[in-house]
Amino acid sequence: MNSKVLFYAIIAILVIQFLIDFVLNYLNAKRFNKEVPPELADVFDQQEYQKSQAYKKNNYRFEQFNQTFSLLLTLSFLVFGGFEWIDDWVRGYTDNSIVLTLLFFGILVFSSSLISIPFSYYQTFVIEERFGFNKTTKKLFFFDILKGWLMTAIIGGGILALVVWVLQWSGPDFWLYAWGIFTVLLLFMNLFYSKLIVPIFNKQTPLENGGLKTAIEAYAKKVGFELQNIFVIDGSKRSTKANAYFSGFGKQKRITLFDTLISDLEEDEIVAVLAHEVGHYKRKHIIFNISASILLTGITLFVLALFVNNPELSLAIGVNQPSFHAALIGFVLLYSPISTLTGLAMNYLSRKFEFQADDYAKNTFAAKPLITSLKKLSKNSLSNLTPHPAYVFMHYSHPPLIERIRNLKA
Questions:
Q1: Which residues does the chain have with pLDDT short of 50?
Q2: Which of 150, 212, 378, 383 has the fewest CB atoms inside 10 Å of its own CB, making it the most exposed?
Q3: Distance between CA 118 and CA 172 in Å, rounded?
């Protein structure tokens, strides 16, 4: 397949994906005013419901504008030779393939991040601020960006340099070695993410002794779940939205509760949320997700190895001198439909896993406090109570609130 065909295939993929998302967002927005199911009538009063509608409409208009801008920018970059310009510029400074790749992607990532700052700023300090969610200061906002750049340069740059070196060293079998690198990294991040990465952005403190900790420990003992690490994270310094998550496995497993969750929910509701997270562990969802990620990474790298040395991939994005970094860009763009399909499958399984974790919490603790906690969390985040089924199918990793409540009451 020649470069012209690949070029037009990339354009078609970008436009079709944009149109699908545009239509799905439109269908979802058409349901914003749909009558709320009777089971959810107590989530919002009339004033809160109107606020929720306004919040969703603001986000809908912003997302449509953001996606349109991104598409036009990407198409312009392809059509007018943006990738070729960057490639020529970096080749004027070095001919070392590792340094060349790092500079090429460094410019792309840094430029993309700079362009996204006004959008992130508007989202945070206009939309989120208007509806009472934002707690981030401008200083913290920009400091987070700087820390993100530094982490991307160190971690992302290090991995990219290692992959290019492995490609040069091992030739056609590079995907096997790269797969091993990504597997080790994935396992390491799952084990130590909360210990090494989270503290860069947030403060974590052990849950204080008291009624809540006693209740959590009693539940953990009841279900045979060894739990020594219960932490509270200061999510309130950025947003009023609440969350809880489980990370790690073996002796490194831990439960992290947002301080906003503790302030928003009653004690039994927090235990119910924790029981849901324990359900994910007990049903081995964590292991499945890690294994699936490793498998999908291996498949992607294998396919990449088949095409990475094809000069047509570089030419397809307008780069006249074939290279690994240009071919990688072309591959990512062409592979995106397959990534979308695997994403759909993973979202489908994730929604199934959420039902299973809810069932576990219901059977080992109680359904009612989990139902009331889900309603409170939905209310406090002004979430969409009537999403379109097609939008749920494409984008939701969790079932809609109404489906979870009906499952818990079954």
A1: none
A2: 150
A3: 42
| CB contact at 8 A, 341 and 385 | no
Distances (CA, A) of 321 to 86, 205, 237, 327: 12, 52, 48, 10
Residue pLDDT, tens place only, 176-200? 999 999 999 988 888 888 888 888 8
- pTM of structure: 0.90
| Beta carbons of 307 and 72 less than 8 angstroms apart | no
Calculate the CA 284 to chain-centre distance. Answer: 21
Contact 29, 56 (CB under 8 A): yes
What's the confidence (pLDDT) of residue 3? 84
pLDDT, position 243: 83
Task: Indicate the Cα dihedral angle 172, 176, 182, 184, nearest 10°.
Answer: -140
Q: Is 283 left (phi over 0), alpha (psi -120 to 50) or beta?
A: alpha
Instruction: Name the percent of the chain in helix, strand, coil, to the closest 5.
Output: 75, 5, 20
Question: What single-letter amino acid sits at 71?
Answer: L
Please report the DSSP string for 180-239 in residue order: HHHHHHHHHHHHHHHHHTHHHH--EEEPPSSHHHHHHHHHHHHTT-----EEEE-GGGTB
pLDDT given at position 387: 94
Closest alpha carbon to 269 in 349, 195, 379, 348: 379
Indicate which residues carry an active-site annotation: 277, 358
Q: What count of residues does the chain have?
A: 410
For residue range 144-176, list pLDDT tens digits in order: 999 999 999 999 999 999 989 988 888 778 899
Burial letters 165-197, b for 16+ CB under 10 A, else e:
ebbeeeeeebbebbbebbbeeeeeebbeebeee
pLDDT at 1: 65
Question: Cβ(406)–Cβ(308) under 8 Å?
Answer: no
Dihedral over alpha carbons 345, 348, 350, 356 (to 10 degrees):
-140
- CA distances to 127, 272, 374 from 203, rounded to whole Å, are 26, 24, 25
